[in-house]
Every structure is written in structure tokens, then in C-alpha cells.
Specification:
- The structure holds two protein chains of two kinds.
- By secondary structure, chain A is α+β, with helices and mostly antiparallel strands.
- Chain A folds into two domains: about 1-40; about 50-150, 3-layer Sandwich (Rieske Iron-sulfur Protein).
- Chain A contains two helices and ten strands; from the N terminus they run H-E-H-E-E-E-E-E-E-E-E-E.
- In chain A, a hairpin with a 4-residue loop joins strand 5 and strand 6.
- The longest helix of chain A is centred in the first third of the chain and has 39 residues, at about 1-40.
- Chain A is elongated.
- Chain B is mainly alpha-helical.
- Chain B has three domains: about 10-40, no CATH class; about 45-290 and about 320-340, Cytochrome Bc1 Complex, Chain C (Up-down Bundle); about 355-470, no CATH class.
- Helix content of chain B is about 65%, strand content about 5%.
- In chain B, the strands form three sheets. Chain B has a two-stranded antiparallel sheet. Chain B has a two-stranded antiparallel sheet with strand order 3-4.
- In chain B, a hairpin with a 2-residue loop joins strand 5 and strand 6 (about 320).
- In chain B, helix 4 packs antiparallel against helix 6 and helix 5 crosses helix 6.
- Chain B is globular, with a radius of gyration of 26 Å.
- The chains are: A alpha+beta, B mainly alpha.
């Protein structure tokens, strides 16, 4: 009777110590994993933000090919010329992120990777892309310089 | 102080102990039991072709070639924005035999994937995964995934245009993973987009992380095989005859490896940039440029073509999810089923023939064949209209797949007495509906799965009725 009464606290003490050991082991694991996880996640991209002016090189490419891809706030942006109108869209296809291209003959933005097609408002015409391309604002200033900015709302 | 160990007399238990180097090693490491084990080791000679037993060894041989040539390539390769592409160009144009080393590395990679796939399908068809060898299957499956990882990560390292877009698409797929998707994508790419940071990460994975994992798992895989021996044919409790592993099987292995090396050298010398099949060539091409648009004909390596084609067949939206997400889910389910086959196949579990799972293997092969052929655009040549070309590709690829499927069924019926064709039949039904009748790929898939489910239910009910009848 007496023995049994003594055995109970011993088991619970052992149990408590096991719990403590388990918890410290878990804490130890987290203290190792956390820095590694933080280390692997890349820093946010830095670079120029805000409206981008097309360089002379980029403008001549635009005139020659009717489109050019330029970086705007760290994003690839397709600037294209259809007739007199300038358009700008995110160049990243909404399907699997390939870089799209402009087919001036068909007035279509085309992603060659999985054959996705968009019209000149960025809307999906055919193929697997699930969303329209994000629009950017492309403006020709009075001095002829072309400025691309993120201001234009989608659609 | 001299230990008693070194003074030990050369007689143990009355048996003469071996002298020389062997004795020296034996006294220290007790090699005799190991040698005895190897001496008695046998490979079962069963009812099936012995060739299947060599495929694992051949795959390992190609892996060794990859390690050797990979280390050699490392001596010149410099990861970096201004150096990665340039160092490969220097290696292939200026370094004596640099082209050869790179060519062997590329050829061996493709041949390794071919032999690994054959090895995997042959163990699957022969049900070598049944108890007690489930973990051999699982470890082999992990090696298969790692090999695909090797192929995918190595592809980016030359930093050319093709690799850039293939990696963009390939990594973008992880975005569909629920909750963790964005984090995974960033960790994989080292940023939001594929940049030179991605190359650094892929380089680390390709030359350190994956090889370490691979060597560890291959050690386990080999240990399991040595410990349990190769799987005898289904139903044979004791193999009727055996071939001595040493020297008979090992010498055959070595001879085959020599043949593989000769084949590899011949291919690497005469076709240094691959056979020119899309997805199987490694011409360096143009340097990657994140500001250049993708160009027509971008395709992944041939062993990823089926996934590429499947991505194309999914509509933009399905069940309230985006098409690529559903596609990834389907691929995940298929890979998951493949991993746990040893536990799904209940008949093989009890060492009984399981024709349904052989048929499942064939259905998988036909499913992959059709998608891969379509990914290759077979039948598109000479047709300018894209829609017409797409229909013709589906038609031509479907015809080929149906011919292959019909041949497989006939051979299985006559030669191997196969009588269970529901799943391969369903795979062919999907191919016919999509390619010949013009039904959409997914709808024809759903119809095929439904027909297969009904057929299996009917065959199950008839079987249990016959079983009950037999019992009476």
C-alpha cells in the first residue's frame, strides 16, 4: 500500500522530466532550423522604383520591332506600339511566368511556352493563362521621351 | 605493450586462418562471414528474362560516370552572371577534350534516366516491390525523384536562353502549392524571378545537396538488395535455380558496363550535342537574357514533356482553382500513388499474381507515351494553321499510341496469357476520344476513368460470384 503511494509521484516526476527533455529538444531543433529557414528566404529585391524612362536604345528597339521589354520597379514590362498607340503590360505570362512577346502582324501578345494569347487590353484570347496581363501606363511626353509607370489600374 | 590480439596464434577453432593481407584484414575486421555471404549469394533464375536484373547496375554505372565527368566539369565551370555561360563556351571550344567531357556528361544523364525508367517499370511489372522489399521500392522511388532533380537543376547551369525559360516554367509550378507556395518559390529561385541567384542555388543543389542525398539513399538501396537478394518471380517461395552472384553475375554486370561505356563514348563522339531531338539536345545556343521574350519551340527535357503537355491541356480555370494548380494536384496524386504501390497491390502482397497492377503499369506507359508524343509536336510539320496543326498532332499521336497499345495487348494476351486489360484499355479509350473523336483531353480522361471504374466493379462482382460458385 505504502509502496504504491510512493511509486505514483516517482512516475509523474519521470514523466515530467521526459516532457522537459522533449520540449528542450524541440526548442533546440527550432533554434537550429529557424536561422536556416530565414537564411534561405531571399531579401526583397532592391533597385530603382517608380516610373521608368525608356533609354535611347530601348526606344529604337521599340521603333524597330514594335515592342521592347524593359525593367520597371524590378518587373519585366512589355512596351508595344500598335498603330500610334503605346501599350504596356507585365511581360510575365500569367500561366507559368514565361516572357511574352508581341506579334505586330496579328495585334496579339503571345506566350510561346504554352501558346497563350492576349489582346491589346491584356485579356486572354486563347490558351491556358488564367488571368489577364497587368497593365502599365505608357506615356509619350512632349519631348518624345517614353515613360512607363505602374499607375494604371488593371482592366 | 603488446595486445594479446597480435600475439594470437594463427589457429582459430581448429581451422587454419588465412595468411597474408587477407589474414591481416580478417584478424581485424572479421571478413570471413562477409566473404561467405557473398560466396553463397545467388540471383534467382526465374520464369522471366534475366535482363531486367541488370538495369539497376547499369543505372548506377551511369551515375558513376556522372560523378566523374561532373567533377571534371567543375574544374572549369564558374557560376556567375558574366561567367557561367562564358565558362561553358570556353570549355567546349578551347579546353582540350572539354567538348567530350560535357558531351559524355549530357549523354550519360539521358541514358541514366532511360535505364532508371526501365528499371523502375520492370520492377513494377515483376512486382519486385512485394514484401519484404517495400523499402527497396520506396528508396528507389526517392532516387528517381532525385534524378529528376539532377536533370532539372543541371539544365540551368549553362545559363542559356532555353534553360532560362525552362527553369522559369519549372519553378513556377511550385507556386501552386497551398500556403507554402510563395515561400517555396522564393527559396527555390532566390528571389521573385529567375535570376543569377537562382543559378547559385541550383548549382549548390546540383553539385552538393543532391549528390549527398543520392549517395546516402543509394547506399541504403544497395544494402537492402544485398541483404534480401533480388526478388524471385511471384509465387516462387524458393527460386528453383540460382546464378552465383560471384563471379557469374558480377562478371556479366562488368561486361555490360563496358558495353555501356563503349556506347556512351561512341554517342558522345559522333553526336556531341545530342541526337537533335527536341528535349534531347544540349547545343549551348544564346546566353540567357531576362529581358528577351521566350521564343517558339521552347520545350523542357524529354522526360518532362508529358508534364509540359499536361499543363497545356488544362483549361485556365477548373473547380474554382486555376488550371495549373489542378494540374499540379493531379501530378502530385499520380506520383503519390506510384510511391505507395507496394501497399496498394494486395494480391502481390500475398504473393499472388496481380494482373491488375501489371495493367496499371501499362496504362501509365500509354498515358505518358501519348502526352510525350504530343509534346514533341509529331504530325505538325508542314501545317501552317495552328488549330489544324494541333488537331493533326493529336490525331497522329493518338494513332501511334493506339498501334503501340494494341500491340502490347496482343503480345500480353498470346505470349503471357494476360486477361486483364481494363486500365490499359481505359488509357487507350482516352487517347482515341481525344485524338480521333476530338473530345477535350480532360473530358475524355473523365470518361475513360468512369468506364474503367464500371468495368472493374463488374469484373469484381462476377469474380466474387464465381468464387462463391466455386466454393459451393
Amino acid at each position: 500500500m505504502n509502496e504504491r503511494a510512493e511509486a505514483a509521484p516517482a512516475t509523474s516526476r519521470r514523466h515530467f522530466l521526459d516532457l522537459l527533455l522533449g520540449a528542450s529538444f524541440l526548442g533546440w531543433l527550432i533554434s537550429i532550423a529557424y536561422p536556416i529557414i530565414r537564411y534561405l528566404k531571399p531579401l526583397p529585391q532592391t533597385g530603382p522604383t517608380g516610373p521608368a524612362h525608356l533609354t535611347r536604345d530601348e526606344t529604337s528597339k521599340l521603333e524597330q520591332n514594335k515592342f521592347v521589354i524593359v525593367p520597371v520597379s524590378g518587373q519585366r514590362v512589355l512596351v508595344l506600339q500598335a498603330g500610334d498607340q503605346l501599350h504596356a503590360f507585365s511581360a510575365k505570362c500569367t500561366h507559368e511566368g514565361c516572357t511574352v512577346t508581341f506579334l505586330p502582324g496579328q495585334s496579339v501578345i503571345w506566350c510561346p511556352c504554352h501558346d497563350g494569347r492576349f489582346d491589346l487590353n491584356g485579356r486572354v484570347l486563347s490558351g491556358p493563362p488564367p488571368r489577364p496581363l497587368t497593365q502599365y501606363l505608357a506615356q509619350r511626353q512632349t519631348d518624345g521621351a517614353i515613360v512607363i509607370s505602374e499607375e494604371k489600374a488593371q482592366g | 605493450m603488446q595486445s594479446s590480439f597480435l600475439k594470437k596464434k594463427p589457429k582459430v577453432n581448429g581451422a587454419e586462418e588465412s595468411q597474408g593481407v587477407r589474414g591481416w584484414l580478417d584478424r581485424r575486421y572479421q571478413l570471413t562471414p562477409l566473404v561467405e555471404f557473398l560466396r553463397h549469394k545467388e540471383v534467382p533464375i526465374g520464369s522471366h528474362w534475366m535482363g531486367w536484373y541488370y538495369l539497376g547496375g547499369i543505372t548506377m554505372f551511369f551515375f558513376v560516370v556522372q560523378v566523374v565527368t561532373g567533377v571534371l566539369l567543375l574544374m572549369y565551370y564558374q557560376p556567375g552572371e558574366a561567367t557561367a555561360y562564358e565558362s561553358i563556351r570556353f570549355l567546349t571550344t578551347k579546353v582540350p577534350f572539354g567538348w567530350l567531357i560535357r558531351s559524355i556528361h549530357s549523354w550519360s544523364a539521358h541514358l541514366m534516366i532511360i535505364s532508371l525508367t526501365l528499371h523502375m517499370f520492370s520492377t513494377m511489372m515483376l512486382k519486385a516491390y512485394r514484401p519484404p522489399r517495400e523499402m527497396t521500392w520506396v528508396s528507389g522511388y526517392m532516387l528517381f525523384l532525385l534524378t529528376l532533380g539532377f536533370g532539372f537543376s543541371g539544365y540551368l547551369l549553362p545559363w542559356n536562353k532555353l534553360a532560362y525559360f525552362a527553369t522559369t516554367v519549372g519553378t513556377n509550378i511550385v507556386k501552386s502549392v497551398p500556403l507554402l507556395g510563395d515561400w517555396l518559390l522564393q527559396v527555390l529561385r532566390g528571389g521573385q524571378d529567375v535570376t543569377i541567384n537562382t543559378l547559385y542555388r541550383f548549382f549548390a543543389a546540383h553539385v552538393v545537396i543532391l549528390p549527398l542525398g543520392f549517395v546516402g539513399i543509394i547506399a541504403l538501396h544497395l544494402l537492402l538488395i544485398q541483404r534480401q537478394g533480388m526478388a524471385p518471380p511471384v509465387g516462387a517461395t524458393i527460386a528453383p535455380r540460382g546464378m552465383k552472384f560471384f563471379p557469374s553475375f558480377a562478371l556479366r554486370d562488368a561486361l555490360l558496363w563496358l558495353a555501356c561505356l563503349m556506347a556512351l563514348a561512341t554517342l558522345a563522339v559522333f553526336l556531341p550535342y545530342g541526337p537533335g531531338i527536341p528535349g534531347m539536345d544540349w547545343e549551348l545556343g544564346e546566353k540567357a537574357d531576362p529581358l528577351a521574350p521566350a521564343y517558339p519551340g521552347i520545350k523542357p527535357e524529354w522526360y518532362f514533356l508529358w508534364e509540359y503537355q499536361l499543363l497545356k491541356e488544362f483549361p485556365p480555370h477548373l473547380f474554382g482553382l486555376e488550371g495549373p494548380q489542378v494540374c499540379l494536384l493531379l501530378i502530385g496524386v499520380l506520383f503519390g500513388i506510384w510511391a505507395i504501390i507496394p501497399w496498394l497491390d494486395r494480391r502481390a502482397y500475398h504473393d499472388k499474381p496481380s494482373p491488375a497492377f501489371s495493367d496499371f503499369g501499362w496504362a501509365a506507359i500509354l498515358f505518358l507515351t501519348y502526352l510525350t508524343l504530343m509534346g514533341w509536336d509529331i504530325g505538325a510539320r508542314g501545317i501552317s494553321d495552328e488549330l489544324a496543326a494541333m488537331h493533326n498532332v493529336a490525331r497522329v499521336c493518338a494513332s501511334w499510341t493506339l498501334v503501340v497499345g494494341a500491340l502490347v495487348i496482343v503480345v500480353r494476351y498470346w505470349k503471357f496469357g494476360g486477361r486483364w486489360f481494363i486500365l490499359s484499355g481505359a488509357a487507350l479509350l482516352q487517347v482515341a476520344l481525344h485524338g480521333l473523336a476530338g473530345v477535350s483531353y480532360l473530358l475524355s480522361g473523365v470518361i475513360a476513368v468512369a468506364v474503367a471504374a464500371i468495368a472493374i466493379a463488374i469484373s469484381y462482382m462476377t469474380n466474387s460470384r464465381t468464387d462463391a460458385g466455386d466454393a459451393k
